[in-house]
Design a protein that fits this description.
507 residues, alpha/beta, Dna Topoisomerase Vi A Subunit, Chain: A, domain 2, 3 domains, eight-stranded mixed sheet, six-stranded antiparallel sheet, 16 helices, hydrolase, lipid binding, isomerase, hydrolase activity
Length: 507
């Protein structure tokens, strides 16, 4: 790890030396064209100079430095390039060192020891816009994905922190989550909306920053609120139905038709007969989301983590790596970069211990999806003297409360009661209650059944195709779609590397 960090530091220094100060490119026309390409034409050269923003011509990338706040030494870089697809603009990012070791608070060297108010953003370009408007601001290294605890000490000096992370619902949910880490009493949130876009867009539109910041909502709130306080948020959900519906599965498009998407703050109960492939399916189901940036925590109490990781790595690679060991490091390197964590428990566990571990993971790693496989391992010694139905309701209730309190999705695997082999599973197959159930049936049949759904969607059944080679249940059509997405990403990364830097899509 130290060797990797040292190499990343050397690579960062090499790129930094090759990059040119954006505010003093030899050709003024090139400077203006570059600024226009990144949508920062109104950001002054003086602002770019203060933050030390450079431009790497070979990769057509902006270069944002990570300076040590103590001695102004270069610790790393973030490179951002633009890709246009029709009328859509995508910002592609790469960091040195890699993202989980990149703990920069962009703009920190410009913050004075007497500053007591701060605006926290999720993007370096937004920090530039705020600074130019005379507002002390910092940009988080991973945007709305994560607020690493290692950065919290740098934010202790501020008595008031306003979180202005973006203009979509994911940014709004992240702002509420981060405010809990930073202390609700000192935090305010800028609600996304047409009149309150992200800071860079506000600068480009000539909006009044002071007015927007004064309208920020306190993060702490009373127990009872009126519709007036909910009005804008209700409108936001109506105007952003796709985002409200949640993150779509790439491998299981049929599931999107029934459940609309994967959402925070909900509980999914998943069951199926012994040997039907519950763990294997849930592995792929969770991997699909994890590959889209959903921070995931696995609690596998029935099979050990090595075996689980092997299953998920095989699904990720789409092949039997034991037959192609020369490819292991290549796929393992990619798999290692996923926001995926595992609990070390195995066998019977106390529910309180598991909940405490989940709480720690949500705080430390901003986990938004937890898989518990399976509930029976929470039904141990603590509940011997209690009716089993009551005990299960208690455990399910504890996980449901956790999902609500922590705005985190819980997928809970439960073994059903014994059923006739030819009989389809029903909601009654699981004693107790839950908000939502995803059921499989067998033997001899492979399909997924949604039998209860509390969100806008439907119930129904769709077939699954199991591949022993890749250990996947996704259909051939979805695999082709996934392969196409992978090929596009690999081609994009290859083009970026030829220019001197790798790329990944901004979350």
């Amino acid at each position: 790890m130290e060797e990797d960090m040292r190499q990343a530091s050397e690579d960062a220094r090499c790129i930094w030396d090759r990059a040119l100060p954006l505010w003093e490119l030899l050709d003024e026309e090139e400077t203006n064209k570059t600024k226009a390409m990144f949508g920062i034409s109104l950001v002054s050269n003086a602002t770019l100079k203060r933050f030390g923003v450079r431009y790497l011509r070979t990769a057509k990338s902006l270069v944002f430095p990570w300076f040590s706040p103590r001695n102004a030494t270069l610790k790393g870089l973030k490179l951002v390039r633009v890709e246009k697809k029709g009328n859509t603009i995508a910002y592609l990012e790469e960091t040195l060192p890699r993202i989980d070791s990149y703990h920069n608070l962009f703009g920190l060297p410009l913050i004075g020891c007497r500053d007591t108010e701060l605006v926290l953003t999720g993007w370096e370009l937004d920090a530039l816009a705020l600074h130019q408007a005379g507002v002390a601001s910092l940009a988080l290294p991973r945007g709305t994905t994560c607020l690493p605890p290692a950065l919290l000490p740098y934010l202790e000096q501020f008595k008031r922190i306003t979180l202005w992370l973006g203009e979509d619902l994911r940014s709004w949910e992240a702002a509420k989550l981060f405010a809990r880490k930073l202390s609700l009493k000192r935090c305010s949130l800028v609600r996304p909306g047409n009149l309150q876009p992200r800071p860079l867009e506000a600068l480009n539109q000539g909006l009044n920053f002071t007015k927007i910041l004064r309208a920020a909502l306190p993060a702490s709130h009373k127990s009872i609120i009126s519709f007036r306080q909910l009005r804008e948020e209700v409108f936001g959900e109506l105007a952003n139905t796709e985002q409200v519906a949640g993150i779509k599965w790439v491998r299981f498009p049929e599931l999107n038709k029934l459940l609309k998407g994967h959402r925070r703050g909900e509980l999914t109960v998943f069951t199926g007969p012994t040997g039907s492939g519950k763990t294997t399916f849930i592995s792929e189901y969770a991997l699909d989301l994890c590959m889209q940036g959903v921070c995931t925590l696995w609690g596998s109490f029935e099979i050990n983590n090595v075996r689980l990781a092997k299953i998920m790595l095989t699904q990720f690679a789409g092949r039997r790596l034991e037959d192609q060991l020369e490819l292991y490091d290549e796929w393992a390197d990619r798999f290692e970069n996923l926001p995926l964590y595992f609990m070390t428990f195995h066998g019977q566990q106390n529910i309180k211990t598991v909940i405490d571990t989940m709480q720690h993971a949500v705080y430390m790693y901003d986990i938004s999806h937890v898989i518990i496989d399976n509930l029976q391992f929470m039904m141990g010694q603590d509940h011997l003297s209690v009716d089993r139905l009551i005990a299960q309701d208690y455990v399910v209730g504890a996980f449901r409360k956790f999902a609500t309190d922590n705005n985190c999705h819980i997928t809970l695997v439960i073994h059903p009661r014994k059923e006739d082999d030819e009989k389809e599973l029903q909601t009654a197959s699981i004693f107790g209650s839950a908000k939502e159930r995803k059921l499989t049936s067998g033997p001899g049949k492979r399909f997924l059944q949604v039998s209860k759904n509390r969100f806008d969607g439907d119930v129904g059944i769709f077939p699954l195709e199991f591949s022993k080679t890749s250990l996947t249940f996704s259909s051939s059509k979805s695999k082709s779609r996934l392969k196409k997405v992978k090929e596009e990403k690999e081609l994009l990364a290859k083009k970026a590397l030829e220019g001197g830097v790798g790329a990944s899509k901004k979350p």
